[in-house]
């Protein structure tokens, strides 16, 4: 017994009709900008590039972000990549099957704060100030207040050594 011609063509025609539906995809990207540009970006401790940048991602959720630029405070924070409505369960099934490319974009912007002072310069200024202060104190000799304080300390130490403690009540 033979199937009719149309029944034999139905499976291949159905496959050809469904095939374009399986060609859809979703492109997920995070766009990162900073003020100033050129900051190095780390996502989940993985270096991804310098701002402004666009990086593809697979999973929505919270990402650990580190923003580094010389002359600016390093910024360590967490940022969320939230899905658009059409990319949530159960709608994402249809967006994956729909023909064409769908784009989900997440944008993050970070403002960096300039460093207050250069640490190396700060240490050098501290050493210079210490040397200047020590040189001034050496030239002047001990001040009257410090000499009086050291005399008082010497008297207290001498008195403590020569006077034995008083006997307690019997």
Task: Please write out the topology.
Blueprint lengths: L4 H14 L6 E11 L4 E4 L2 E5 L2 E4 L4 E8 L6 E7 L9 H7 L3 E11 L7 H22 L3 H19 L8
Parallel strand pairs: 1-7
Antiparallel strand pairs: 1-4, 2-3, 2-5, 5-6
Lateral arrangement of strands in the main beta sheet: 3-2-5-6
Q: Provide the gyration radius in Å.
A: 38 Å
Count of the domains:
2
Query: Looking at CATH, which topology of the largest domain would you report?
Result: Immunoglobulin-like
Mean pLDDT over the full residue set: 79
What is the end-to-end distance? 130 Å
- How much helicity do the residues have? 25-40%
Order of helices and strands: HEEEEEEHEHH
Instruction: Give the low-pLDDT segments.
Output: 156-160
Q: What structural class do helix, strand and pairing data support? A: alpha+beta
| Sheet with the most strands, sense and barrel status | 4 strands, antiparallel
Strand percent estimate? 25-35%
The first-level CATH class of the largest domain is given as Mainly Beta
């Amino acid at each position: 017994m033979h199937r009719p011609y149309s029944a034999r063509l139905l499976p291949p025609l159905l496959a050809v009709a469904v095939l374009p539906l399986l060609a859809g995809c979703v492109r997920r990207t995070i766009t990162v900008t900073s003020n100033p540009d050129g900051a190095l970006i780390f996502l989940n401790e993985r270096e991804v590039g310098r701002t402004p940048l666009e990086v593809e991602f697979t999973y929505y959720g919270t990402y650990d972000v580190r923003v580094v630029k010389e002359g600016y405070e390093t910024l360590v924070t967490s940022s969320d990549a939230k899905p658009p409505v059409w990319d949530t369960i159960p709608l994402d099934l249809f967006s994956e099957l729909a023909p064409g490319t769908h784009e989900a974009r997440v944008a993050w912007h970070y403002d960096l704060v300039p460093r207050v002072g250069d640490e190396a310069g700060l240490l050098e200024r501290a050493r210079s100030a210490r040397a200047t202060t020590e040189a001034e104190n050496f030239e002047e000799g001990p001040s009257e207040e410090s000499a009086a304080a050291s005399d008082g300390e010497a008297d207290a130490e001498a008195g403590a050594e020569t006077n034995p403690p008083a006997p307690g009540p019997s």
